Amino acid sequence: MVPRRVSIFGATGSIGQNTLDLIRRDREAFRVVALSGGQNIAQLAADAHEFGAEVAVTADPARLDDLRAALTGSSTEAAAGAEALAEAASRPADWIMSAIVGIAGLVPGLAALAHGSTLALANKESLVAAGPLLMETAQRHGARILPVDSEHSAVFQALQGEDIGTVERVVITASGGAFRDWPLAALARATPEQAATHPNWNMGQRITIDSASMFNKALEIIETHEFFALAPDRIEVLVHPQSLVHALVGFRDGAMMAHMGAPDMRHAIGYALYWPERRMLPVARLDLAAVGTLEFSTPDPERYPALGLAREAMRLGGLAGAVLNGAKEHALTAFIEGRIGFTDMAGIVAEVLEAFGRTPGHINAAMTLDNITTIDRMARDAAERLIAGAGVGRQGAGRQG
Ligand code: NAD
Ligand code: MG
């Protein structure tokens, strides 16, 4: 059997390491083309060495010499920076994992699709900011995008053999995050360390904090809208503390198909890796009798204002998803750095979105990579002005629009 050529962007992260874990268990079936990482040069080099990667790319040009040194004696080429990432994503591969965190995943994802590779998409930020551009690029080049986010993999699996036209609604679930049971008044004082502990999933720091604020689910509502071309009012969110039902698809005959599984990302990654086949995967099997109870409830909009912001971004349309994502990424960084409080994040994103909505010239611009990059920068600048206390209304996005 000819090994399948695979590349992993964001290989050193949580999704990347889980992907390599699956590939390691089925070593002969794969040939690794490119691996990418950020500051964790030792991990990147060790993986590149172990899997005999053609090229290893660090996102940080300042770390190129370190990477070269760490790769001494191996046949792996070292590269660094955004252009090197795009070049590596252009190298012929059958399957590419997009697992960079944040908008930085967009350009390598587009490059992979433009070369006809199948893109396994964990990087939800690119779909939120540029869904139609990704979809159209895939279509133009005969490439395929497979969902890796657990909820979207669940919906995708429930839809196999079904006609999307018969779908009445899709329900994605949320654990409720670290602060589900905290008194509302305590949220403003929550620390990044407290927000970065997830009740059920083991993930990267940023997505874990986004789970506590529900910005993760906000992005996932838009991801569902873009991925499955479903109207916003057909997409619902339920809080489900056990994280065992990942999503439900409701059809027009009233039937609902629920997808269940242990909270282990190797399931969704493995499904995308072997699709359309189902293979044996090393994930825990559910013992429902031991679980006993599954709970579901409607998310409280006061506790989770991020969900309403996703609806607002979809109502505004155009490039509003890029505004939401850019402002959110910037606010999240500021929270991690201790510059703002936990509940300030949603307030900042709301104000930025509102400012762009008042003068919609920018969000109604064509969906090109240039325009997305520009509006992403503007949304971050607007968020920063709010954080610095200057006020977005006085000198922010509105005036520039
Ligand atoms: P992580 O923080 O563990 O890893 C992120 C990876 O991206 C690392 O390899 C890092 O080096 C790289 N990276 C960070 N900034 C970069 C930049 N500016 N340029 C290039 N590379 C950069 O994150 P993660 O939890 O693995 O999440 C990765 C993506 O998958 C995110 O989009 C996240 O929303 C999505 N996702 C993750 C999970 C999960 O279980 N972890 C589940 C669903 C979706
Ligand atoms: Mg998810």
Give keywords.
alpha/beta, four-stranded mixed β-sheet, globular, Rossmann fold, 401 residues, binds nicotinamide-adenine-dinucleotide, disordered C terminus, binds magnesium ion, 18 helices
DSSP summary, beta strand count: 11
**Which stretches are poorly predicted, pLDDT < 50 over at least 5 residues?**
393-401
CATH H-level superfamily of one domain: NAD(P)-binding Rossmann-like Domain
End-to-end C-alpha gap: 56 Å
Q: What top-tier CATH class of one domain fits best?
A: Alpha Beta
Reported by name, the CATH topology of one domain is Rossmann fold
Order of helices and strands: EHEHEHEHEHEHEHEHHHEEEHHHHHHHH
Q: What structural category characterises the helix and strand content?
A: alpha/beta
Distinct small molecules: nicotinamide-adenine-dinucleotide, magnesium ion
Radius of gyration of CA atoms, rounded to a whole number: 21 Å
Number of helices: 18
Helix content: 40-55%
Strand order, sheet with most strands: 4-3-2-1-5-6-7
Describe this structure in words.
With about 400 residues, this protein is α/β, with parallel strands linked by helices. It has a domain at about 5-145: NAD(P)-binding Rossmann-like Domain (Rossmann fold). The chain contains 18 helices and 11 strands. It has helices at about 15-25, 40-50, 65-70, 80-90, 105-115, 125-140, 150-160, 190-195, 205-215, 215-230, 265-275, 290, 305-315, 320-335, 345-360, 370-385, 390-395, 395-400, and strands spanning about 5-10, 30-35, 55-60, 75-80, 95-100, 120, 145, 165-175, 235-240, 245-250, 255-260. A 7-stranded parallel beta sheet has the order 4-3-2-1-5-6-7, with helices on both faces. Strands 9-8-10-11 form a 4-stranded mixed beta sheet, covered by helices on one side. α5 links the parallel β5 and β6 (about 120). α6 (about 125-140) runs antiparallel to α14 (about 320-335), α13 packs parallel to α15 (about 345-360) and α14 runs antiparallel to α15 (about 345-360). The termini are far apart. The model is unreliable at about 395-400 (pLDDT under 50). Nicotinamide-adenine-dinucleotide binds near residues 123 and 207.
